[in-house]
Amino acid sequence: MRRRDDFRRLPSVGTSRRSIERDVDTEMGFHLQMRIEDLMRQGKSHDDARDQALREFGDTAAARGELTSIDTRRARQRARSEWFGSLMQDIRFGVRGLRSRPGFTITVLLTLALGVGANAAIFSVVDAVLLRPLPFHQPNRLVHLWEAYQSKVDQRSEASFPDYLDWRARNKVFSDLAGYQGGGFLFGGAQPATIGGGKVTANFFDVVGVRAIVGRTFIAGEDAVGDPRVVLLTYGF
Fold first, then answer.
1. Is residue 98 part of a domain?
2. Nearest to 22 by CA among 62, 57, 71, 55
3. Residue 39 shares a structural domain with residue 118
4. Contact criterion met (CB below 8 Å) for 57 and 50
5. Same domain, yes or no: 85 and 118
6. What is the pLDDT of residues 93-128, one digit of tens each?
7. Handedness of CA 89, 90, 93, 94 (dihedral sign)
C-alpha cells in the first residue's frame, strides 16, 4: 500500500476549500496515472494495472479527506502569515511617514484625541439618557408632557402650574400626573455654592415610585401656594 505522504509531489496553490479539493484530486489523479503507466510498462494490461494501482493506493477517499484537511490548514496559516506581514509592513511605513512629518503627526494625534474624547462624551450622554433605564418603578410607563403651540421660535414648552392643575383635574388617560421643574439653588452663608435640585409637586415621588431612605417624602397639600416650604435631601448631599 502506498503511503499518503507519497501523494505530496505537486504544490497546492488553492486557497478556498473547493479549489484545495480540486488541487488534491488533480494531484492524486496524477500519481495514480503515473503508477498505472509504470505497471503497464512492466507488461500488465491497462485494467490490471489500474486495479493494482488502486489497491496500492488504498482508501483514496480517506486520503483525499486527510490531504484536503492538511492543505486547508496550511492555506489558513499562510493567509494569516501574509496578513500579519502586510500589517507590519503598513505599520512600519506609517511610522516612517509620521516621523518624517512631526507637525502633521501632532495634528493627527490631537484630532484623534479630540474625536475619541467627543465620541466618549456623546456616548456617555446617550447611555445615561437613552440606553440605561430610568431608576424608577416601571420606567417604560413614564411619559413627559409638554404644552404645544404655534410659534416661529419653538412649538412646545413646559406647562405652567395652573395648567398642570387643570390637566390633573381632568386627566382620564394616565394613572397620575406630577410636576417637576429642574434648576439650582444657592446653599451656604459666607461662601455659598450652587447645588442642583428641583421643584416638584407633592405626589412626584408617588408617581415615579421612589421611597425615602430615612424619613418621608411629601404629603398631599405641601405643594399648595403659601404653605411652608418642605425640602427633601438626597443621600449624596
1. no
2. 71
3. no
4. no
5. no
6. 888 887 888 888 888 889 999 999 999 989 888 887
7. negative
